[in-house]
Amino acid sequence: MNNQRKKGVLLVQLGTPDAPSAPEVRKYLTEFLMDGRVIDIPVLGRNLLVKAVIVPKRAAKSAETYATIWDEVNGSPLMYYSKLQQQMLQEQLGEEYHVELAMRYQNPSISSVLKKMEGMFLESIKVIPLFPQYASATSGSVIDKVMEIMRTWQYIPKVSFVSSFCEDDLMIETYAEHGMRHDVDSFDHILFSYHGLPVRQLGKVDPTGGLKCPDTGCDACKKATNPFCYLSQCYATSRAIAAKIGISEDKYTVCFQSRLGKTPWIQPYTSDALHDLANKGVKKLLVFSPAFVSDCIETLDEIQVEYANEFKELGGEKVVMVESLNDDPRWIQSLKRLVLSN
Fold first, then answer.
1. What CA–CA distance (Å, rounded) separates 139 from 162?
2. Which candidate, 128, 117, 98, 126, places its Cα nearest to that of 155?
3. Which residue, 113, 179, 295, 327, shows the most beta carbons closer than 10 Å to its own?
4. Same domain, 150 and 198
5. Are 120 and 180 found together in one domain?
6. How confident is the model at residue 1 (pLDDT cuts 50, 70, 90)?
7. How many helices (H) and strands (E) does the chain have?
């Protein structure tokens, strides 16, 4: 056994199909949506909903969409940028650290990567789910899976988790600079569009079951950072970016995309926000999507294609998507600080 034990870092992204084909997308969607933290209903109902309704209906269409963003050389944009982040962080941390990348769903799986790390007898492992705002369905699911796997280890090193980093100043600075590349003042309005969640999941952070959140969240969570509330952290990120680029509260709207099913999700929905802004005569929109640290299907297609076309049909002129953090060196410095902090 090597006496020069390294410190481990595990970066975890959501995941991506292995190829833009219907069979691969079907596998990915099934694993993703069968997670009880993602669709939080009893397993029998979840099986029926996912395997008999959602996946058969969406797999082929989603595969066609993935094909439009897939690169012949680099493959999935999410995987491409995630690998770059891993490599750049390894370079920044040096030989004292060993940095790995895993996907919560599909490959490389958390179990396969942790198996490799187990055999390295690392001094410690810091797990960083690559989601700035904490939600049970994202960061919570990653942490849950890591703990499930590691509890079977005979030797367990010091383990720590980064639950959220919604107001990290270097991350905020990077998002803001990416936005300012587009001449912010030339736009009528700015959207901060986040991945949505069922409203019931907001209240589930209270183990007593007494917290009942309205569809649009409570005013307190919109104005102050609540470390347990996803919606609160989305507003915190938005406020920080807006302050950095110098725009007032009436210049931007926080909204939520990617709704699934008929149950109430956090509102306002991005689509509804587009309709409301178009009705007010807004023509030019700049869109941030700060739930994603790498450009992916939600940014490259859902916003840049789907929502952009919808807005133009409503009378809007243009929708410009702000690039994600991707391989910006300041974002890698932000990750490095997360690793080195206690």
1. 9
2. 117
3. 179
4. no
5. no
6. very low
7. 14, 8
Structural domain boundaries enclosing 14: 7-165+329-340
In a domain, 2, yes or no: no
The closest of 109, 31, 113, 26 to 61, measured between CA atoms, is 26
Q: What is the CATH number of the domain that holds 57?
A: 3.40.50.1400
54-93 pLDDT per residue, tens: 999 999 999 999 999 999 999 999 999 999 999 999 999 9
User: Is residue 160 domain-shared with residue 205, that is, in the same domain?
Assistant: no
What is the number of structural domains in the chain?
A: 2
Please tell me the distance from the alpha carbon of residue 53 to that of residue 19, in angstroms, as a whole number: 22
Q: Are 188 and 283 in contact, with CB atoms under 8 Å apart?
A: yes
Q: Are residues 182 and 286 in the same domain?
A: yes
Other beta carbons within 10 angstroms of residue 333's beta carbon come to: 17
Let me know if residue 77 belongs to a domain. Answer: yes
Give residue-wise pLDDT tens across range 78-131.
999 999 999 999 999 999 999 999 999 999 999 999 999 999 999 999 999 999
CA 32 to chain centroid, in Å, comes to 14
Read off the tokens for 213: 């959140």
Tens-place pLDDT, residues 151-193: 999 999 999 999 999 999 999 999 999 999 999 999 999 999 9
The tokens describing 55, both together, are 């996946």
Query: Is the pTM higher than 0.90?
Result: yes
Indicate whether 156 belongs to any domain.
Answer: yes
